[in-house]
Structures are given as structure tokens and as C-alpha cells.
Amino acid sequence: MKETEVVIVGGGPVGMGLAIELGQRGISTIVIEQYPTPQPVPKGQNLTQRTMEHFHFWGAEKELRAARTIPPEYGIGGITAYGTLLSGHHYDWLQRELVRPFYFTDNERLPQYATEEVLRARVADIPAVEVLYGWSGEAITQDHEGVTVKAVRREGGEPIEIRAAYAVGCDGSRSVVRDKAGITETKSEHDKKMVLLVFRSPELHDLLSVFPGKQFYNVLHPDLEGYWQFLGRVDLGNSFFFHAPVPHDTTKDNFDFAGYLHKATGAEFEVEFQHIGFWDLRVAIADSYSNGRVFIAGDAAHSHPPYGGYGINTGFEDARNLGWKLAAALRGWAGPKLLDSYSVERRPVFASTARDFIEKAIESDRDFLARFDPETDREAFEAEWKKRGTGATGEVNAFAPNYAGSPIILGPPGQESGAKGGHAFEARPGHHLAPQPLSDGRNVFEALGTGFTLLAFGAEPAATARFRDAAETAGLPLAIVEDDRDGTRARYGATFVLVRPDQFVAWAGNETPDDVDALMRTIAGG
Question: Among 15, 227, 258, 327, which one has the highest count of C-beta atoms within 10 angstroms of its own C-beta?
Fold first, then answer.
């Protein structure tokens, strides 16, 4: 039997991200991954600024940007079009660059398999992490002291058992770990069969030259009642992918996929198919993200259609949230509520993402297509189309995942956690910390510690010392960054900003709390 502190079933992007998070903290980790090499299906391409912050802290940002398949100067924007891609009715969509000032890094775009290659290479450099490629998790049992995972080699042979303090299922929407751990899920079915086409077409590249700097294209067609036809580049000049609804009885052999592509685009072009696959459009969320010593993350915990590039980014945030909490539990400074806070924080964020952004977009598009038609009332259509383009800008700002209602956050009462909000430079408990320059030339993000960090701007030394002493009493890792409150640091609106290991604000204020020890116990899950 092999022994480790954490065993991760599933070495896709979320599993590898979690392994890096744990391994960098010195937590011995074994990853069970069935595929020796990443599967060459282009998905999970849009990486947000927040996700790129993860890669910065994982020591792989430079390598990830070097792995992109389209030159940086080309741009990574998208558009939404009406009727057909080349109809002339279109507006910019998913403009994540608009919220760039609130994050430390730029966003990025590349196929998931390229991202996985970077993550695998980074994992290989971390001594605390071992990866078993070509193995699958088959069974899992747990007791009060730990978890035992049975793994089998895909090529056959004797199974092995791995004993760990905790197990995490990052094994996709059909998660074996979720099933074996007895974690139920709730599904919202849309009764839509979707096709994924991967194909080559230099001619299509030439047609799309009318949209310089764009890499993905969303087509709204009245016949589809709000469901998208979604086209995207895999590289520059040759390869593309295409998602769209198809009849339920569609197979690889009984449907004119080339004709479907031509209709969606509004032009004919040569097509060489590389992959034809199908998936059911649904939203699914686990009823809890843990059971005892077993946790789930990524698609094992939640899944939704690839609308807006939320999926892989949500999974990476799961990894960042869970990783430091598992490390805290294993190193002895976690309070009894800390591990439970993973599900309490992350589940409402996904539920809000699905409800307030993905399904709301489908409903909004359906309503628009039913009410407006350029053939019957062009003036009304044009006015509403222009309005929708403006709304697309607001949607990017409104997507601001937060843990304002978390029991390990100290903020105003009555707050709720979720994905809907707004971006601000103010240090708000439960919200992501915005970057600001320090007086020594560094960015705040370059000064954050691996544990908690206290930002003290213009504070008295005696007041700062109270935080340091309370952290030592609690055994909580705390770095202290002292500076004046001049310049843009005043935007935080607080003398003290207590930042979590995942760069979310745990507490902020202008005065030292009466009971700093209680503050430290709360943020550690006491």
C-alpha cells in the first residue's frame, strides 16, 4: 500500500492545479491520472485574469503564455452575431480586458490540452507530488483516520491501494469519487443534444479576416431559441472548433455537418473534420462538495455548457480554495469549520454562475429572438441590438465571485456569497483583493505571503504587533506588509487589510479589533 497525505483522482487541469497548490506547501500528494498524455480536444480555452493569478502563484505563468497557440499580437476577443456570423449584425462580447485594472495579471487563451502540458511540467518539478499516469481510481473507502483509494492500471495488471488523510475527486462530470463517496447532485436538463466539431479550414480563416483580433464567435439564430452556435479558433489559420444544437437522433453519419457550419457562418468553405463528438446540454451541481474526508472539485462538483468560459476558471478557483485549507488541516492550524467552508463558499458561487449568467443568458437570448426581427422591424431590432452590445460590457463587470456570506469572513452582516457583484478597488471582506503599487515599487501581489498577509497602511507599530502576536498564538502563518497610505493605496479604504492565502480579503478596517485573537480564530475556521 502506498501512503501519502492527499490523493487526487483525476489529473486534468483542476487536479494538477490542486496538486501544485498542495505540493508547493510541502503536502505529500499522489495524483491518479488515466491518460499518459493530454487529450487533444480543444475546450476550456478562455482563462480569466483571476486564473492567470493562480498560474503566477503556481510558478507557471510565463510558461503558460509561451504555450499559447495563437500569437499574442492577434488578440483574444470575441463577438456575438445575429443570424449568421457574416450577417453584418455583431458586437464585441466577453470583453474581459475591461476589468483588467482589478487583477494582477492579463487574461489568456489557449486550448486546454496546452494548459495541461504546462501544468504537468510544473508538477514534475515539485518533489512532494507523485503522478501515476495510466491509472484510474476505481473504489474509495474512508474511516475516521483517513481514506483508501483503489487504483487500477488501464492496461491491466494488479490494482494498488493508496492510503491518505484526504482524497479529492477531480475526475470529471461522471466522477467515480463523487459516486463512491455518496455525494448526490442536482441537474437542470435543457433537453438539447450538442455537437462538438473540430476541423481544419484555411478558407474559414480568410473569411474571418473581417473580424481582426477575434478568436471566438457566438451566433444567435432565431430557430435555436436562445441556444448558441459557438465557433472558436484553435490556432491561427487552420484549426477551429464548433458547438451547436443538433436533433436528438443525430449521429456522425446521418447529418450534414459541413452544411451546418456553412449556414451558421453565412458562406461556404472547405472543411476537414478531425473530431465529431456529442454532449447533452445540462447544468449539474453536487449537493455538497464533500463527505467526510472526501472532497470533489471542478466538473466532479459542477458542470455546465461552455457558455462564457466559466467552467475551467471555476475549477481552478476550487483548487485554490481547497488547497490551502487542506494544507492548514494537515499542518495543524485549521479550526473545525475550515474544511467545511470549502463547500459553503464554492457551491453558492457556482449556483450563482449558472443561474445569474449562463441560464440567464439563454433566457435573455430566447426572449430577444422572439421579440425582435430585422426583417419585420429593422429599426426596433437595431436599437435593441445596440443595447445588447452595451449590456455585454456590464456582464463582464458583474461577474465577481465572492464569499461575502462565508462564516470565516468578517464583514457586514447579511451578506451572501455568489458570482454576481461588481469590481472595486475597495478592500471588501469576502471579495478578491485588487492590486495596488507599494511605495518600494513592488505590486501588493508581489509581497503577499503563502499564508495570510496583513497589509498595514500607516498603522502604529504597536497595533500591527497585536496582529502578529495573535497569529503566533493561533499558530496561523502571517506575513505583514507595512507601508504608508499614500497614493492609490488609499483606494483600499482601510488601514488594515487581512488577506487570505487565496488573495481574498478576510477582514478590513481602520481600527484594531478589540479581540484580535477571536479574529484570527474565525478566519482559520475556529
Answer: 15
